[in-house]
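Methods: example folding runs. The two proteins below were folded one after another, and each record is reproduced exactly as written to the output file, sequence line first and C-alpha cell line second.
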Amino acid sequence: MCAFLPPGKLPLDMLSGLLRECSAKDERILVGPQVGEDAAVIDFGGTCLVVKTDPITFATDEIGHYAVHVNANDIATMGAVPRWFLATLLLPEGRTSETLVRTIFDSLRRAAGKIGVSLCGGHTEITAGLDRPIVVGQMLGEVSRERLVRSSGLQAGDRILLTRGLGIEATAILAREKENELRDRGFDAALLKTAREYLHTPGISILEEARIACETATVHAMHDPTEGGVATALRELAAASGCGLTVEAEALFASEETRLLCDAFQLDPLGVISSGALLIGVAPEDAGRVRDAIRTAGIPCEIVARAEPPESGLKLHVNGTAFDLPEFDRDEIGKIF
C-alpha cells in the first residue's frame, strides 16, 4: 500500500537525496540545491545574485506581507540585500472577489516598499481545488562574493545565537486565524490584540539583525527558522555544515503570548513556524560581541547552542541531562489547520 506523506516539509533525508540528484552543473552557481541553504547564489563577476522562492500556505490574513518578508529573510541570511520580488498568486475558485485581490496586492506593495524592494513581475490566476489563497514569492538580492554567508559554514566550537525568540510567526497566525476560538476559550482581548500584531511587532523580518551581525564580526553561518520551527532550523543548519550540536534548553526563549497560545493548542514552541527569529553562527570569541550589538539595537538575543563534531549528534540539554533534539515531521501548527 502506498504511504502518503504528511503536510509540510519533506523529510530531510529524502530531500537531501533528491537534491543531490539535481546538483548544479553550471560553474557560475556558487550555492546550488542543498538542505539547509536558504537561497541559490549565482556568480555575476563583481557581485553575486542571490535567489529564493518560498510559498505562504498557513496564513490568509496579510498574506502579501508574509510572502515579501519570508523571502527577503532568506536573502538576508546569505549576507545579501533583497532588491527585487516576483509573486505568483493562486486564488480559490468561487471565493475570490475583487476586494480580496486588491487587498493582497496592497499588502505586497506596502511590505516591499517598507524594505526598499521593487515588485518586478509575477503571475495571478484563479485556481480550481484551493480553499484559500496561496502566494508563491521569489526574491532576488545581491552581495559581493567576499561578504557571502552560507548555512554550511559552521565549524566545531562555533556558538549559535537566536534572536527574538521561538514562534513569532506562529503567534501571529494563531491569533489572526483562530481568534474566535481563542475568545471562546476565555483569552483576553488585549492579549489577542498584542499577539495579532506580532506580524509587525516584533515582526517577522530579520534584516536588521542579519546586517548588524555581518557588520560586527565574521559570520560563519545564518539560517532563519520557518516551517518546523527552531528545532528544524537547527537540524538543517547542522545538516548543511556536517556538524553536531549541543542546544541549551534553558537559553531558548519565547514570549508569554507565544507560550500561552501554543499551550492552548498543545503545540511545542520548538516546532512551530518561526519567521522573525534568526540563527547566527560565529566563532566563540565573537559570540558575546555580536549578541551585545544586536541587543543594543533593542532586539532580544541569546547564545543557545554550540557546534560540535558530527559524531556528537544533535542534543538538547535540559537541566544537565542530554536528550535527542526533537524532530518534527511537520510544523506543529499544521495540527490545527
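Second run, written to the same file directly after the first:
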Amino acid sequence: MDSTLKRTWAEIDLDALAYNYRVLRNWMGSASRFLGVVKADAYGHGAVEVARTLESLGAEYLAVSNLDEALELRQGGIRLPILQLGITPADQTAQALACQVTQAVWSEAAALSFSEEARKEDGKLKVHIKLDTGMSRLGFPCDEGQFDRSLEAICRVWALPGLEVEGIFTHFAVSDETGEASKAYTTLQYRRFSNMLDALKARGIVPEICHCANSGAVAGYPQYACDMFRPGIISYGIGHQAALLGLRPVMTLKTVIGAVRELPADTAVSYGCTYRTMRPSRVGILPIGYADGLHRVLSNRWQVWTPSGPAPVIGRICMDMCMCDLTDLPDVSVGSEAEVYGPHNSVNAAAALAGTISYELTCAVSKRVPRIYYRGGEEIGRELLLRG
C-alpha cells in the first residue's frame, strides 16, 4: 500500500471472491439462484465493492440486515434485488418501496403494518415470509404445536393488499456444526420447512423462491439448495467449512513495524505488565490495536507474520498499538510489513484462540482501516469509511 501514512489496512482480493463464487455455484448447481449476503459491510470486506463484483459475476440476489445497508448499495449503483433480512419498522415502508427492497416478514402483525403503510403509498412491497423452524428468533413458528396456526396466518398474509409475496425462507441453527445431534436438528428444521411448503401448496399457494441454505448448509447439505442459496461467511473463504471446499480467503489484514525498541531482560511490556522479556529483546511496535479490530483477548497469544516468519504478540494489545517480539528476526525492521490475518496467519486460528467465531474478527475490522481492493493483482480502488 502506497501512502504518506502507511499504518494498517485490509487488502480485499476480488479474484478470490470470484473464485469462491464459481466454486459455490458449481457445488450447489446452476438451477439454484445465488444470494450474496453482504450485511455488516460484507462481513467487514466492503459491501458496495463486493456487491458490484457479485453482480458482475451473475449473482441473482443480495441480502442485508437493515434498510440503511440497502440504501448504501443503491447509492453505490447496485441494481440487483436486495432482501432485507432484519427488522424494519413499518414507518420506513415508503423508503423501502423507493429503493426497491424486498422485506422479510416474520409475523402476521408485521405483515399487517407493512400492508397498511404500502397502501398509503399506493405501492406494493415485495416480501419474503420468514419461517421459524427451530432458530427461535424471527419467523412464523413451524413446530408441531404451532404449525396449523402459522399456516392459517401465512394464508391470510398472502392475500393482504399492498404486499407481493415473492418468497419463503428459514434459517438453520446448527448446520455448520458436526455431530449426530446437529445433523438430526438440521434435518428436523428442513422437514418443518418442507412440510409448510407442502401445506401451502395444498392451499394453492406456491412461492416463486424458497430458500434455506445458509453457509453451513451450503457446505454440508447442498441437497437443500431449493430455489436459492445464501452463502454468507463462506463466500469470503473464512471458517472451517470454507477450507473443506477449497475456498480462498478474500481479506488480508496488514500493518507495519512502526518502531523498534531494544529492551533489556526482565522488562515489563504494555498495560498490566502481563509480559516480561526473558532476555535482551528487540520489540517491534505495530500501529494496530483493538480500535482497529485486533481483539485485546489475543494479547500474549497471537502472532503477526513478517517477511522472515512469525513474530509473537507480547504484552496487552492497546487501543492503537501492540508489540511483537523481533529478537529472532534480525532482518525485520521499521517499515517491514506484517500480516495480522491472511494466507499465512489464518483468521480462523485467531478466532479459536479468542474463543469466538471468525465472523466476529472480520466484522470487527474498524472503519478507520482502509480497504484496498485488488483485481488481477492491480489495485482497482480503496475505501476509508470514516466520515469525511
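Comment on the second run: The two ends are 21 Å apart (CA to CA).
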